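Possible regression after last week's pipeline update?

I re-ran a chain I had predicted before the update to compare outputs. Posting the input and the new output here so someone can diff against the archived version. Not blocking, just want to make sure nothing changed silently.
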Amino acid sequence: WQGIHLRDGRNELEFIVRDISNNEVKRFNKVLYYSGSPVKAEIVEQFSRLIADGVTVPKLAVRFYDQEGQLVRSGTTGQFTISEPYIAKEFAEAAQKESLVGLDRLKPQYTVGEHGIALIELQPTTQTGEIKLNFIFGAKFEQTVSAWLLPDFRNWIVVGLADATMGSNTLTGNSLAAQNDG
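New output (post-update):
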């Protein structure tokens, strides 16, 4: 079962089982789809973490499709660019490890995992708003997808100062009632 070369797209396989006398015992037909290179991307919000709180690592789940509209196979890689002021986490880590020479030529990469989805992590940020990812798929296809980073909603502690004069207008003639009420 080794050495079967698959083409991008639909592959029809036929297996014939023969006995020792070369008589056909069984025949199997199988259609196997081998996805091609990506040509379309979409944000999958249910698997994304779109929080800009300065601590959490934002994560964008991007699903990729080939020219036939099928999910791109696991292990497929590619490059992308990201809108400023956002930075891909892998790019920020590379900048810390390597010298700054040549970083302008470095582009972050994605790797497709299960279900045609690549997870793209960003450097934690407090900057909310629209983030744009641009993908170039070979010489023919290019696409920009966008998502919104939102602030993380947290409980607030409100501290304030107040200065008041109580009772200058309402206690005249009612001081006994005010004492009884505490």
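Follow-up from reviewer: compared with the archived run. The chain is about 10% helix and 35% strand. Marking as no regression found.
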